[in-house]
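Recall that a protein's primary structure is simply its ordered list of amino acids. Everything else, from secondary elements to tertiary packing, is in principle encoded there. The following example makes that idea concrete.
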Amino acid sequence: MIRPAESHEVYAALEEIFRKSVSEVRRNRLACSSTFTIEELEVTIDGRPIKVIFKNLSRNAIVSSAAGVKPDFLYAPMREMNVYRHIHPVLNMDTARLYGAVVDQFTGRYWLFLENVAAPELYQFGNIDVWIETARWLARFHASHASEPEAARSVAPQLLRHDAFYYQTWLQRAISFRGCALEPVKSYYNEAIDYLLRLPRTLIHGEFYATNVLVQKRGSSTRICPIDWEMAAVAPGILDVAALASGKWNRAQRLSIAKAWYDSLPERLRPPDLVTALDCAQLQISVQWLGWSDRWQPPREQAHDWLDEALCICSRESLRNLKSEDDRFARL
């Protein structure tokens, strides 16, 4: 059950963060696809309004449509908090500014107060050039020193680990929900995750979908601002690319987005075969969506037939080649 944060507690938190007296706070709860309650705040300090995003990561702030839907093993509020507190300042890539945070593990209170970036989501842009530019931003993020696995884990130990157990968890969940419909996918998925586990690792956003990327045009420059870092992880960067390129784009357009990322990466982070890596990553995120919940419907802008996507990927030459190679070695 959602328990809205008490206004006097929000006032007190804001005064502690800004170190000034707050004369007024106007609160507007957003209708968004995040798991947690998010509010737009207009905070008046010294007669001047400041627009703030208040994200409540406490368990009692999980929105009703997400309650009991998001797998419980993913809940770790300090993951996103530490990304904002310790990684973004070093990253220095124009992500949303963190004004401050409230952490009280005894009461289970986890509050983030962030810059309100007034910009549309990427999915509202039909020009693929904007998506290409976003892919290049993604490459710079993956190549940053702040995104090196050891550096990232040292300041955010709650980051998800994309290991074999993690990937198999999603397959087993998907099978439990979809049953025999997943039978044609199982063996290809196992080959795909074996391939992913061999790729270079970095810090990833974890849900780099177009609904989670704000794009702010500022004259001749463009600000790329990913939000909702709840699923941040150490994993192959191609998984972020697969999320970015999912949706309405055709095969050639998806590959052009992936190629922009690949060409902007240092060689040490490049997968040996971009097409195979992208197909394996898109199969993994398809199975992950299928294993998310048996009673969840995505928002309209995220609606997609992930089972059909998974079956389509398994029919591609890249996945069939992976499977035939393993079959050949098994016979030796």
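Residues 7-115 form a domain with the Phosphorylase Kinase; domain 1 fold (CATH 3.30.200). Strands lie at 22-29, 37-45, 48-56, 98-104, 109-115, 160-161, 202-204, 213-218, 221-226, 233-235.
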